[in-house]
Amino acid sequence: MGTSFRQNGHFGGEERDFDVVVVGAGSAGCTLAARLTEDPSLRVLLLEAGGSDDVLEVQVPAALYKVWRTRRDWNYATDPQSELGGRELFWPRGKLLGGSSSINAMIYIRGAAADYDEWAQLTGDDAWAYAHVLPLFRRGEDNSRGADEFHGAGGPLRVEDLRSPHRWTKAVVESAVSAGYPRNDDFNGARQEGVGTYQVTQKRGRRWSAADAYLRPALDRPNLTVRTGAQATRVLIDGSRATGVEYLHGGQRHTVHAGHEVVLAGGAINSPQLLMLSGIGPADHLREVGVDVVHDLPGVGSGLQDHPLVPTIWHVRSGKSLFRAESASGYAQWFGARRGPLTSNLAEAGLFTRSSPELPEPDLQYHFLPVKFWRQAEVDPDVDAFTAATVLVHVHSRGSVRLRSADPTWAPAIDAGYLTDSRDLEALVTGMERAREIASVGPLAAVLAEEWSPGGTVRGREALKAKARETLESLYHPVSSCRMGTDDEAVVDSQLRVHGIDGLRVVDASVMPTLVRGNTNAPTIMIAERASDLIKAAVGARQTAASSS
User: What structural domains and CATH numbers belong to the chain?
Assistant: First the structure.
């Protein structure tokens, strides 16, 4: 999608008012822009710090990691992690239209039903229970399998089966079944537990991001303005009400006013950063970095959660892995019929299971990749190999996002807090042991050769713990840094309104009270679907009140 602007104002000093200003054109921001402007009376401005998503590396599914560490990536890194030997982990975050939905692995996973029932308990609002969010998931979905009790058809977000799965993907599913795990053809259906292939946010072999699904169809609406290259620097506050946004564009500072609401949709790093830059956050920390305190809200940036993974990698006896996908024949298949290895999302199959039978829900997820995935694709694969990534999806450790400076162009300090709760390491090691068991049986055993990492000589839980600390990486699912709740550390209420500030909401993964058991893109879009309903209702109520007064 090329960059598109509808100016509806001017660049320079004060600009005309909008009803709603949305900061961030990622998964949530694109959804909000589309849904809110369905009401022709609502004038919406969508601000995005990055630029266009109209590049081949975004469109070709298997090229996803080629966008990382470019100008279309915020290119974040954590602070040195105390439990990982001081390592700093790379965190890609999309800095372009579509946000991280334009650079992710396209896996369509909602999480377990129990996740949302827990949200309802933690927020005191039954509207977040699974029975109530399921219709929102269905509303946004266009599943190639058609509509049923759990799925929608005809919505903006196209969800499909992989068009050209690798033959090792079928082998790993069969091996996991041989190892005693149940087959599951739909992780978003009646149950989550089991092994199967993922459905993906693709349309006929091409990535289908939130920008494709929601934003592009709305671009011609006269009540939507999209501005790229516009980095928000501060929310404008008058008394206890948000009135607009200050942002940088082309080296100049601009302000824009919001008649009804300002909505932050920058994600679990940028939204708490912008709140703190605006003087909303833990007062002592704000004073330390030289930010005037507007509203002391201690929970901003706290409670950060992420899914950690530990890869187990094997060499293979024969066959071609996806590191050979970028060939003349691979591109010919993709450009010709949108088929072949370049349609792969890399992590083609998955498994949800419990590290202990005493657990009520899965706490482990596996991503099975027919390629060597090492050090977060910092270097290209060099040999044919197979990866089983053990992911902890029920995380006990917590981290934080903090400012390094009052300068909005500085990257924030990210402490992921990996393995600071010992229960996380124990579960991951159990998962590594299970990955070895799956690899040793069924058709996969005939494909795999020697174990490259951790290595066949690494045996016993203590040795595996040491290797986990050495090789643990992020699955890029940061959440909960502006979480919903009613306690003193909560940042927003159950309707996503910032505690203590009128006219200001946060709508993105940062509001999740806890991590879902699975990938976070689909839940983020669902949150924005609900938020659009809440915002429309609030605007309507204000207009009614104003007309009757």
Answer: 15-63+93-156+208-304+399-414+478-549 (3.50.50.60), 163-197+308-394+420-471 (3.30.410.40)
